[in-house]
């Protein structure tokens, strides 16, 4: 897929102010600092579109981006950020979990996993929750440039093994690097495919300008 345009749409703290659910939408989630915002910028080849930082906890809002004027990427705040207070964390839980469970145009959740790490409980628990709630998701291993391919492959195989203890089938997975653009074509082809399926759905959608 060729990216012709990528624009910031809006930031939200409340799920009732989200854009009308008329275009196919893909949400990026994972631990704080795993590289969600960087991956979005890499996919659309626009540095600085989604704000990135070396300090965990940069993204605090639900940020929507409109791509090619016909689909949406969503940058979500990270989970597992140690400095977030307990009450903040439970707000995160409510807000994000509500969004993930109720967003009707959400086609797939991209769950990002740091390819340098062995399986982490927090990531497995999150995948398990997605599964329990019937939310379609794929795994995206990030920061592949930071270590050898052998090491990434080992960690991905371990994660897959842990996932297969929770699910009968493992979801599709991708290996990516925001530095080298590894995985870009594969992720965009996957999205393109889902966009086409969405177009074929026989439902009457309102014109966004009339809402
Ligand atoms: P929060 O919004 O805080 O949850 O973080 P995030 O998941 O959006 O991470 P972000 O994209 O801000 O990246 C965190 C740090 O990791 C930044 O310093 C990035 O430059 C770095 N980073 C992200 N992806 C990659 C990658 O693929 N390779 C390398 N080498 N660094 C990366
Ligand atoms: Mg971010």
Task: Provide an overview of this structure.
This protein has a 7-stranded mixed β-sheet, with helices on both faces. The protein is globular, with a radius of gyration of 17 Å. It has a single domain, classed as Rossmann fold, CATH 3.40.50.300. By secondary structure, it is an alpha/beta fold. The protein is built from 5 helices and 7 strands. The chain starts with 5 loop residues before the first strand and ends in an 11-residue tail after the last helix. The protein binds guanosine-5'-triphosphate and magnesium ion. The site of guanosine-5'-triphosphate has 23 residues, from helix 1.
Q: Could you tell me which ligands this complex binds, including any ions or cofactors?
A: guanosine-5'-triphosphate, magnesium ion
- At CATH level 3, the topology is Rossmann fold
The quaternary structure here is single chain
> How large is the count of helical segments?
5
- Distance between the ends: 29 Å
How many domain units?
1
**CATH superfamily label:** P-loop containing nucleotide triphosphate hydrolases
Helix content estimate: 25-40%
What is the averaged pLDDT score?
90
The global form is globular
Give the helix/strand class. Answer: alpha/beta
């Amino acid at each position: 897929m060729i990216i012709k345009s990528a624009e910031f749409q809006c930031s939200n703290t409340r799920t009732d102010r989200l854009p009308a659910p008329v275009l196919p939408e893909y949400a990026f989630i994972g631990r704080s600092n795993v590289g969600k915002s960087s991956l979005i910028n890499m996919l659309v080849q626009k540095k600085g579109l989604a704000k990135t930082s070396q300090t965990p906890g940069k993204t605090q809002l639900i940020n929507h981006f409109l791509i090619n004027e016909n689909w949406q990427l969503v940058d979500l705040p990270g989970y597992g950020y140690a400095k977030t207070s307990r009450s903040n964390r439970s707000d995160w839980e409510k807000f994000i979990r509500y969004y993930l469970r109720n967003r009707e145009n959400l086609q797939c959740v991209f769950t990002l996993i740091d390819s340098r790490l062995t399986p982490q409980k927090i990531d497995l628990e999150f995948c398990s929750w997605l599964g329990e709630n019937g939310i379609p998701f794929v795994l995206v291993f990030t920061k592949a440039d930071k270590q050898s391919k052998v090491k990434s492959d080992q960690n991905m195989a371990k994660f897959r093994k842990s996932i297969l203890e929770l699910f009968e089938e493992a979801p599709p997975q991708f290996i990516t690097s925001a530095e080298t653009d590894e995985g870009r074509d594969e992720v965009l082809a996957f999205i393109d495919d889902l966009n086409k399926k969405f177009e074929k759905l026989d439902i009457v959608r309102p014109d966004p300008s009339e809402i």
